[in-house]
Amino acid sequence: MSDFEEEFSSARNNNSDSPKLGRNRDYLWEHFTDIGQAKTGGHRKCHCKYCSSQFNYAKIILMYRHIAHECQAILQDNPQVRKEVIRRLLSLNNQEQSPEESTRKRLKRNTGSPSSTSSSSNSRQLQIDYFSARSIPLREKQEIDRSLLRAFIMCGMSFHTASNIFFKQFLNKLNSMYVPPDRMKLSRDLLIQETILVESKNDEMLNEAQHLTLNMDGWTDQAGHSLYEYNVVTETRKNVILALKDLSEFNHTATFLTDQLDNVLQRSSITSNIVKKIRAIVTDNPDVMKKMRETFISKLLHQHVLSLRCFGHAINLIACDVVKHSFSSKLLSKLSTVTTYFNQSHKFKAILKAEAKRTHVKKETFDSIGDTRWTTVADCLKSFILLRNPLETILCVHGEALPPKVLVVLKQKQLYREIDNLYCIMRVLAYAVGIIQANSATLADCYLILIYITRLMAKLTAQNDTKEFGRFVSKSGNIRLKEFQNDYYLVCFYLHPKYRGAGMLTKNREIVYRTLADIARKLEIM
Hints:
The chain has four domains: 92 residues, no CATH class; 76 residues, no CATH class; 101 residues, Nucleotidyltransferase, domain 5 (2-Layer Sandwich); 171 residues, no CATH class. The chain has a five-stranded mixed sheet. It is of the alpha/beta class. It has 23 helices and eight strands. It is 58% helix and 9% strand. Helix 22 crosses helix 23. One of its GO terms (cellular component) is nucleus.
């Protein structure tokens, strides 16, 4: 029997129902059902055995993506399949070779020497134009393609840019031998490969981590979609995003959100069960999220998890309450009038900059107040404090040229005192949020912020001109921060490495020991 006949017989035995002879079908076909010939010759149609999703063209890369990322039913039927598919896809990605490289190796194997099709003159030409026309190895081209993909994604650029003639000319000037991937390859093949690589790195971090903090947050985007993000933070403060879901079509009940969270945790890692490593769950504090946390930790496998409220969200709520108070809203309305005029007037904007330089003030313009970011309120107030002297000079020298609505604001006697009073509370709130966003805060830091805010509220209440405002801030702060006055924060405060107190009173010592024993019992380390 000839070699061709042996190959023909082997192909029929391995895949007798395959309409196309040649190499064996991919392993992935075990999880799909062939449903016949596609419209285009040489292609087949198929559907998933788990969720019955149909593919009019059975392309291997799309089938891999479906099993690895899209199929929900596979988690209940056979969760190990997804792990195996992702492992195989990573292996295929690492072993990928170009047709030119395969041809070169085949010629080398047949002739005993590497193929050489380039003349000596061409070789010398490549050496002359080494930096602009050198041949790019496959591995290097893959790295360039990945860097190009990351640049497009992180800069918010459309994949259509890859087909733009001017963009291609730019790349051609850098190296005429580099052919960029087209839009379809970027959005499908490369994006899937990059997603798998990122998931692989995330799995490595999750496997190395011993303690995880689970965070869950929901918000509404500009398009009106209800989005939920799930992430964990390791003990080394590395953040791993587990999932981002659009749940606009569902009722956000506590039971539904708990089921969604369990689903995310189930498919979050392909090598280990991260639920055993979760030490705390942190969310904001609407009634539905509070009930969801209680439902989650009431389960048998989750009883070791601590339930914590997001400290940053509470600070945001306090800041929003402060800004909405009549004292704050009236003052900010006045400052917006001045800020808008000086930022839009070319003449007075230039005069303010010149006066600030003359008096050696670091700030030269007023900061505007953003509607969606309350931290800009603190920036705006600080800019008025820094530019007070230049502004008073402009009022004396160029006051007649200013419009009446601006003059009325700048001539108020209590203007800067009101600015100082509002800034003293907004500065602390903005500083607290900055610490939390910097990913360097601990529960002890939160406890210190609580103490400082409480003392500041008492100071505002004691002043005659801000007594009413201080009472409002104190009431809002007590309501928002009540849940943070618990034993966990107290324990972290006493155990902080920089704690320099005189010691613990008998009552506090008893609280600390009892809380530590309770945590140890939950973590099963006693």
